[in-house]
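Q: Is it fine to ask for two folds in a single conversation?
A: Yes, each is treated on its own. Send the first.
Q: Here.
A: Result:
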Amino acid sequence: MSNQNQNPFKWRHFQADIILLCVRWYLRYSLSYRDLEEMMAERGLNVDHTTIYRWIQHYAPELERRCRLHVKFTTDSWRVDETYIKVKKEWVYLYRAVDSQGNTLDFWLSSIRDGNAAKHFFLKTLSAFHTTEPRVINVDKNAAYPKAFNDLKTVGKIPESCELRQVKYLNNLIEQDHRCIKRLTKPGMGFFSFETAWRTIQGFEVMNMLRKGQLQGVAKGDVGGQVALVAKLFGVAA
């Protein structure tokens, strides 16, 4: 195990619990980095907003990585869709999937929206630790999905018995779920690089999964349990 895994907060100027507090709040609520700077100032802590930005860039993907193996298994009915995120004043595509219960299956940020992007996302979702082999995949009328679906079925990546449905109303569930992620991206007024967006979105998504009760041992609405789990994953006393 690397030293970083043993102590992910080594050489940091602030205590681990303060860093995790800022990371959790930024990824969970619609806050800007300057909002958090002021909130920490109320606690008597002089934390610059650029420091909080660096914490998010470092710890958001790490939080997502540490949570992955603790996610509960999902159902075999998928809802797949993409939404738009602004990066450097340009729109990019956030591919997302939820199951029939509204639980997040997976997500992926892409600069393009075509058959190859859809195929990549299907493969990423199929290989996720917590996803169940799909019985049905619901998508919208985007022509890229049937092509990607058929290509992957031909090579045996998607089960022969799996059905693709292009019925828009069936995807209302995921369109509603998009709103949570879109709401979180607004305070930052867009991202300045693709890498910055992807690192941050990994954190937004995994905190959304935690909020929805998708991690083992923590029920939806159990805020204390959510705080304790994040602390435990990073080896910090809650």
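Q: Second one now.
A: Result:
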Amino acid sequence: MLDHDADVESSAPTWISFADLMTGLLGAFVLLLVGVMATQLEMASKLEDEVQKRQVEEQKRLSLEQALAIPLASGRITLNNGRIGISGKLLFELNSDKLEPQGRQLLKSLVLPLRSYLQSREEILMVSGFTDDQTIKSRNRQFADNWELSAQRALTVTRTLIEEGMPSSMLFAAAFGQEQPLVANTNEKARAQNRRVEMAPVPKAANTAAAKP
């Protein structure tokens, strides 16, 4: 009897250690499972946010297309990823910032639909000027470089839109010079594509941040 009792007592710590081990493993498994579930929930939340973001962008694109249906149908402007493009030759003579009569008429036709579009949302219109890669000094000494030419063209378009009824609080001008070309400047046809003005609705907060030094 004494030997049996001794065997029971000697085996007890082993069973207790095994139980502790199983408890620890179970706890670790539960923690791992909780971590996996949390990761899956986070991924599902991000996916839902991305889907909603794309739906909002698609709705924005459709709204802009509807607002600009007439000038888009005439082929005088383009719309790509929310950017309204106008060929430089419709607005200005080569290397000039003086607006052509047909350019003013086009801008005038855009004021009402753009104003209505912007009034319905927290956005502001960014008017951007772009040039080709040719050095401006050899062609027109009025401007120091392509940055200045693109800036003056953007300002001309901005001021014209204001003159034709666009509230000044709804837009601002930006210059990109020869940067961000649509196509490589390999020939005159390509350079003509890159000489352009673009208008894009952007969140008002983005404009505020850009204005800070």
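Q: Anything structural to flag on that second result?
A: Two points. The longest strand covers residues 123-130. The two ends are 91 Å apart (CA to CA).
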